[in-house]
Amino acid sequence: MQVLVNSNHSISVTSDLEDRIKATVETELERFDDHLTRVEVHLNDENSNKSGPQDKRCQMEARVKGHDPISATHKAETLDMAINGAAEKLNHALGHALDKLNRH
């Protein structure tokens, strides 16, 4: 599975941050590896340089082989919390969607 990381202008994606994101995605979505072609991660700081409650947003979109993409978004106070929350939500969404597809 390929993991692509994108961000808006207010978030600098360092190689360390990109490695942490890839590790989180790969660990959280490992059981779906055979079903996924790639996961796109979009990071956004909604308040730019100002801090605020839940101003960090992470959206993850999983590309499922032969099916529509599945997306999950999480907002949090820190980037790491947003990334972890989005990965957990995407894990649940993929589990639900693939179980549904396997039943049909």
From TrEMBL:
A Pfam family it matches: Ribosomal_S30AE
Lineage top rank: taxon: Bacteria
Annotated region described as Disordered, given as residue ranges: 43-71
Protein name, UniProt field: HPF/RaiA family ribosome-associated protein
Organism encoding this protein: Pseudomonas songnenensis
